[in-house]
Amino acid sequence: MHPALAVCLVFCGCCSNVVFLELLVRQFPGCGNIVTFSQFLFIAVEGFIFEANFGRKRPAIPMRYYLIMVAMFFTVSVVNNYALNLNIAMPLHMIFRSGSLIASMALGIIILKKRYSLSKYTSIALVSMGIFTCTFMSAKQVASDSSLNEEDGLHVFLWWLLGIAALTFALLMSARMGIFQETLYKQFGKHSKEALFYNHALPLPGFILLAPNIYHHAVLFSQSEPFQIPVIGLTMPIMWFYLLMNVITQYVCIRGVFILTTECTSLTVTLVVTLRKFVSLIFSILYFRNPFTAWHWLGTAFVFVGTLMYTEVWNSLGPLLARWRKRPKAE
């Protein structure tokens, strides 16, 4: 597949996925579990058919390692989604998750004894400053909500603090999972599509613990207003339509990233994913009218400039543009 098509899949799939997720959580903030379960189930079924060949294909990486990875992946996914139920706005959620570089570098230094250049430390300082700025301004907005009395305002603020703690935990756990995957790939080779299947199939029994919450939101979804799907004319509750589109776009997003990793360098993948997050953030702010001050914009700029600096994309753009100019013109 041409890299340009893979980039289109990433942008269309991932950006659309964020839109449908926000439509879901704005109506039912606690619906993260049913969203996660639906995504896991869809990708697991697809992987069971096309990757595992209905269970006949043996995994290249021993199952015990997948069980460890899956425990981390399941925890990160559930905690990230549950944070949306703790007064965490979607823009802050996206900005906070963009700080994965900080957690990866910190754990890389502690666990893998890595050392980095001055530019890397500078970029991480920018990302940290950006996240701190956005978090601090969001905290002021939550604490000064004029529609609440003092007691209710304190209660909301404490839940918000718990949400920040949940996002921080998920960020560190995600970075630890990345280091674990890195060591596995060095030992057994890269099997990203196999890992994608097992990361989504093995956690499915864990959703039994969340079954009451999933069933509760399934009932709420079924009671939502009917919606007629364009073109095919099928009518279904609108929340189920949003969930269906969220699952499909999540799959398109993941497949686009997977294709991109096989067609392009890791630097290009990081750049595309970073730009995608920025586009999603802008759309969320403008379309859903999420509160966003000049300080939030400054913090966002710090995060994305720091991320681009970390990938050293500036050093690569010159040769890339030079090769593009020298390419033969079509007759």
Automatic annotation (TrEMBL):
Family the entry assigns: Belongs to the nucleotide-sugar transporter family. SLC35B subfamily.
Question: What InterPro entries is this protein classified in?
Answer: SCL35B1-4/HUT1
A GO CC term attached to the entry: endoplasmic reticulum membrane
- Regions annotated as coiled coil: none
Q: Where found?
A: Endomembrane system
Identify this protein by name. Solute carrier family 35 member B4
Q: Name one GO molecular function term.
A: UDP-N-acetylglucosamine transmembrane transporter activity
Q: Which gene encodes it?
A: SLC35B4
Gene Ontology process terms (BP):
regulation of gluconeogenesis
> Membrane spanning segments where?
37-54, 66-84, 90-112, 124-144, 156-175, 196-215, 227-245, 257-288, 294-317
Q: Which organism is it from?
A: Coturnix japonica
Entry keywords, A to Z: Membrane, Sugar transport, Transmembrane, Transmembrane helix, Transport
